[in-house]
C-alpha cells in the first residue's frame, strides 16, 4: 500500500503524525499554528492545502493516535488465546508501556481538552471510548459464555471499571512522576478479575 | 474576616473566583486574557494590578478551586464518626455531587492541561494530589489501628486506587454524558472497602 502513496499523500501523513504528538502534548487549544509549522517544517499554506482548519487536523491527528494505540493493543493481545487472559494482558500492557504518541493517553487528553471548543474532536474521542468499552465488554461476555468468568457479572461495569482505574492511575502517575499508582491499579484490577473468574470444579 | 476586606482585596477575590471557572472549563493554555477580561468585567490593567502574569492568576485560581473542593469534603465527612465510614462517604460524595467549580475536577483538568507550559501550576496540582492521597492513607491507617480495617492492607495502594477509579470514571462520565461509569466506580469501590473491612467475631 505505502509504495502507492503520492507525494501529496505522504505530506498529509507526515503532517498528521507530527501534529498528533504536538496536540497530545499541548492540547487542542494549547497548540498554535506556528508550533504545527515548526514541527512539520511546512508553511501555513502547506498545512492548509491538506486540512481546512486546525479543528480538522486535530480530528485526523486524534484518529491517527487512536489507530496506533489500537494496533499496538491488537498485536499484544492477538496471541493470548482466552478472553480472561486478554483482559489481564490489556491491563498489563496499559500499565507497562508508554503511549505510542508522546504526551500520555490521547483519549484522556482529548476528553479533558476538547470538552469545549471542538465538538468534532470530542465526538471522535467519545467514539473511541465507546469502541474500547465495547471491546472489553465483548471479552467479558465471551468469558462468561466459555465458562471462564462467573455468570451474573456485568460486562459493562467490568469494562468501565477497568478503563476508569487505568486512566485515573495514568493521570496520577504522570502528575506525581511516580509509577506506583499504575502498579497499584494493575494489581488491583488483576485481583478484581481473579474475583470474577469462574472457580474450577 | 470578610468584613475587613479592602476594595482591592474584594476585587482580587472576585478575579480569582471568576478565573477559576474559566480556567477549569477551558484549560490554562485555552484561556485567553480577553476571556478573563470579559468574565471579570475588568480591563487588562485591572487584572494585572493584582496578578503579575496569567500563570500567577492560574495558580491562585487552582488553589481557590481546590480549597472549595476540600471545604465541601470536610463539611460532608466531619459528621461521619469512623474512618471506614469516611472513606465510603468520600466515594459517595465524589460520585454524586458535581464539582463546586464548573468544568469537572480541577485536579484532573490541571494535571492534564499543565503537563507543559506552567510548572508552578503543575506543582500546585501535584501538591493537591499528595494532600488528597495523604488524607485517604491516614484514614486507612486509622481504620487499621481501630480494628475496622484488616491488617496487611496497604494504605497507599487503597488511597491511589480510590482516587484513580473516581477520577477515571469522572472522565468517562463527562465524555460519554452518562453517569453510569461513576455509578459503577462507586459500587466497585464500596465492594473493595467491604473486602478490606475487618470481619466481626
What's the quick description here?
The structure is a homodimer of 201-residue chains. Chain A has 201 residues and is mainly alpha-helical.
User: Helix/strand/pairing class of chain A, anyone?
Assistant: mainly alpha
Level-1 CATH class name of the domain at 61-196 in chain A: Mainly Alpha
| Rounded Rg of chain A | 19 Å
CATH topology of the domain at 61-196 in chain A: Tetracycline Repressor, domain 2
- Separate helix tally of chain A: 9
Give the ordered list of helices and strands of chain A.
HHHHHHHHH
Main β sheet profile of chain A:
none
Q: From the 3D coordinates, which CATH architecture of the domain at 61-196 in chain A would you assign?
A: Orthogonal Bundle
Explain what the structure shows:
- 2 copies of one chain form a homodimer.
- Chain A is built from 9 helices and no strands.
- Chain A has helices spanning 7-26, 33-40, 44-48, 54-78, 83-96, 106-113, 119-145, 155-176, 180-196.
- In chain A, helix 5 packs antiparallel against helix 9 (180-196).
- The longest helix of chain A is centred in the middle third of the chain and has 27 residues, at 119-145.
- At the A-B interface, helix 6, helix 7, helix 8 and helix 9 of A face helix 6, helix 7, helix 8 and helix 9 of B.
Keywords:
Tetracycline Repressor, domain 2, homodimer
Q: What is the strand and helix layout of this fold?
A:
The structure is a homodimer of 201-residue chains.
Chain A: H1 7-26, H2 33-40, H3 44-48, H4 54-78, H5 83-96, H6 106-113, H7 119-145, H8 155-176, H9 180-196
Amino acid at each position: 500500500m505505502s509504495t502507492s502513496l503520492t507525494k501529496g499523500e505522504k505530506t498529509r501523513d507526515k503532517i498528521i503524525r507530527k501534529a498528533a504528538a504536538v496536540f497530545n502534548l499541548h492540547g487542542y487549544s494549547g497548540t498554535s499554528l506556528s508550533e504545527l509549522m515548526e514541527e512539520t517544517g511546512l508553511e501555513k499554506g502547506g498545512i492548509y492545502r491538506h486540512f481546512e482548519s486546525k479543528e480538522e487536523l486535530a480530528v485526523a491527528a486524534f484518529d491517527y493516535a487512536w489507530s496506533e494505540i489500537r494496533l499496538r493493543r491488537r498485536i499484544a493481545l492477538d496471541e493470548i488465546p482466552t478472553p480472561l487472559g486478554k483482559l489481564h494482558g490489556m491491563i498489563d500492557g496499559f500499565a507497562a508501556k508508554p503511549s505510542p504518541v508522546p504526551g500520555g493517553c490521547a483519549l484522556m487528553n482529548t476528553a479533558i481538552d476538547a470538552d469545549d471548543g471542538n465538538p468534532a474532536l470530542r465526538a471522535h474521542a467519545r467514539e473511541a471510548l465507546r469502541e474500547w468499552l465495547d471491546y472489553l465488554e465483548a471479552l467479558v461476555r465471551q468469558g462468561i459464555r466459555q465458562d471462564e468468568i462467573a455468570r451474573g457479572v456485568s460486562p459493562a461495569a467490568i469494562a468501565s471499571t477497568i478503563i476508569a482505574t487505568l486512566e485515573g492511575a495514568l493521570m496520577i502517575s504522570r502528575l506525581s512522576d511516580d509509577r506506583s499508582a499504575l502498579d497499584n491499579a494493575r494489581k488491583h484490577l488483576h485481583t478484581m478479575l481473579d474475583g470474577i473468574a469462574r472457580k474450577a470444579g
